[in-house]
Amino acid sequence: QVQLVESGGGSVQTGGSLRLSCAASGRTFSTYTMGWFRQAPGKQREFVTSINRSGGMTYYADSVRGRFTVSRDNGKNTVDLQMNNLKPEDTAVYYCAATATPMALYENYYNYWGQGTQVTVSS
Hints:
With 123 residues, the protein is mostly beta strands. Helix content is 0%, strand content 48%. The chain is globular, with a radius of gyration of 13 Å. The mean pLDDT is 96.
């Protein structure tokens, strides 16, 4: 079992940057693929990025590739999402999630979820 807590959300203007962090409890963090998802008002939750157990493999949604970077520190049990060149369409609640399934892209594979952190990008 793992518990996840996100932090770092906030409000920025278009073109700005934010760094989200997800802290995980438990001693098995390094055995999980970690993912970030987001949900905008009135929309379904969508995949943003995932990172494999070692941190050596990542995958991004087309909408964020080249602007967002995911990283993890297995020694600190954290996974971060660096978001640059933010756009109004990035406005959403961002969720950190964990799965034992390697490089899962779909939310139904993820067993553990954080409470979410709000990101608002104004034009």
